[in-house]
C-alpha cells in the first residue's frame, strides 16, 4: 500500500510535486522549474494530480473518471495518475520563451503519448538522463547478439522529465495548460 500526499503550488518560477511514502518525497524529487528566458515576468502556476478511477456506466460498460488527489491518497501498483499544470500570465505584457520542465515522479512510469496541451505552438521534449538533455523522441543504443549496435526508441521506463517550450508568446491574462499521465510501479 502506498500513500500519496498532494497539494497545488502557485509560484512564478518553481513547481514541485511532493508525494509521500514509497512513491517519492519532496526532498528526493528534483524540482520542476518554470523558466522565462527573456525576462522575469510573472506566470502563476498550479500543479494538480488526479487518479484514474474505473466505474461502470448505466449500460454496465467500463468508464474512466478522474478523482482529484487531495491530502493522503492511497495508490497501488498499476494505478494511473494524471498531472496537470495550469497557469496564467498575470503580468501586463506577453511572456516569451516560456519553458515548463516537469519531472516524472520516481516509482512511476510515464505513459507514452499521454501529453495534452491547450496552447498552440508548444514543442514537447523528453529526457531520459535526469533532465540533462531533452529530445522529441528519446532513443537508446542496444547491442545485438551479433555484436552490432542498433538505435531503438527509449522505453517509457527510462523517461525522467517532460519539457514544454512555448514557441508563441503567452499573452497577458492568457491561460495555459499541459498534462501527462504516469502509472504507479
UniProtKB/TrEMBL annotation:
Species in which this protein is naturally found: Chroococcidiopsis thermalis (strain PCC 7203)
Domain of life: Bacteria
Name the UniProt record assigns to this protein: Conserved repeat domain protein
